[in-house]
Amino acid sequence: MSEVARIAEAVARGRLTAASVATETGARITAARELNAVIHFDQAVLDKEAARVDGIPEKKREMLPLAGVPVAIKDNIVTTDEPTTCGSRILQGYTSPYDATVITRLRAAGALIASKTNMDEFAMGSSTEHSAFGRVKFPLDHSRVPGGSSGGSAALVAAGVVPAALGSETGGSVRQPASFCGIVGVKPTYGRVSRFGLVAFGSSLDQVSVFGKTVDDAARVLAAISGHDPNDATSTPLPPMELEAPRPDLQGLTFGIPDEYMPADLDPGVRAGIERTADAIRKLGGTVKPVRMPHARFAVPCYYIIAPPRRPPTWRATTASATARGRWARRGTCAPSTAPPAARASAPRCGAAS
Do residues 110 and 229 make contact, with C-beta atoms less than 8 angstroms apart? Predict the structure, then answer.
């Protein structure tokens, strides 16, 4: 049984209280502080989440798919009871007046919002080294990176602090850190999960995505947050996903390995990992065969037109549009760029009362 399923079943049936889960989760978050994976955490807020779940009548609690399950949240998904800073000093102290749809749905499923996690500033990075609050450390070797930009969420799941977490992905920001950290990362099809309340990097690419220790962990959380949302014009008009019964084997399924992704200079460790996975698929009855993806070479050039290189003035298309809504003239400080660093740091925000 996966960790998400174990906790949910125990809390739903009264064998475990959400309050005890909250206490244990808070202790693990505190113990993992050296990872620098968490930007915002308040035990009182987590205890309040637990009290809400424990206060639900038992018969109703048994219907909750994520009863008492602690889920960490990337800091670009807005919440009303914790700040949302996107890993940036520009938004330091900002608290949203509303919750993102995924937060509302997690709570409706009985989940506990555990903390807000560290990330590359405004999700622009692939290592979580570029946060205003410092870099996130890889749990097994602090000299290495966990990937990014959702590295804080990935590190917490990999370290066993929480069984699942939410990230956001534009072009790899969940699947890549999941790969680095040896966990599961799922980016759903665009529109399958509401983006309402997700601070945009590239609106035509972004998706709230899920980390889990196992496929089952990730699937249970993804099912809870999926489904049409009238607050998101790009939301697909489909009902929430339903969990399928576990398959006993992979009979009848075919898996492709693209030739373009297996070049001669591929790192030997990566190649060995892919070959181990292919062997496991075959042992479970699946078929593995090479496939061609002739247009793969255009993927990165297209990405750098639609999304941006990492720093101005070369921002492109969707990011230029998204960041215009949080213009630095309103959100930044009033000190001129020629002022000394100390003066810029202490200057009031533009538009703030003096």
Answer: no
CB of 181 within 8 A of CB of 159?
Answer: no
Phi, psi for 72 (deg, rounded to 5):
-85, 150
State the catalytic residue, choosing from 126, 149, 153, 235. Answer: 149
| Catalytic site includes residue 74 | yes
Among 2, 74, 115, 127, the one annotated catalytic? 74
Asked whether 167 and 177 are in contact (CB, 8 A), the reply is: yes
Helix (H, G, I), strand (E, B) or coil at 85: coil
For 97, other C-beta atoms within 10 Å of its C-beta total: 6
Whether 173 is catalytic is yes
Rounded to an integer, what distance in angstroms lies between the CA atom of residue 341 and that of residue 347? 10
Q: What is the pLDDT along the chain (354 residues), one digit of tens a residue?
A: 899 999 999 999 999 999 999 999 999 999 999 999 999 999 999 999 999 999 999 999 999 999 999 999 999 999 999 999 999 999 988 999 999 999 999 999 999 999 999 999 999 999 999 999 999 999 999 999 999 999 999 999 999 999 999 999 998 999 999 999 999 999 999 999 999 999 988 888 899 999 999 999 999 999 999 999 999 999 999 999 999 888 899 999 999 999 999 999 999 999 999 999 999 999 999 999 999 999 999 998 888 888 754 444 444 545 555 555 555 435 555 555 555 655 545 555 544 433
Active-site annotation holds for 149:
yes
Candidates 131, 173, 194, 209; catalytic one: 173
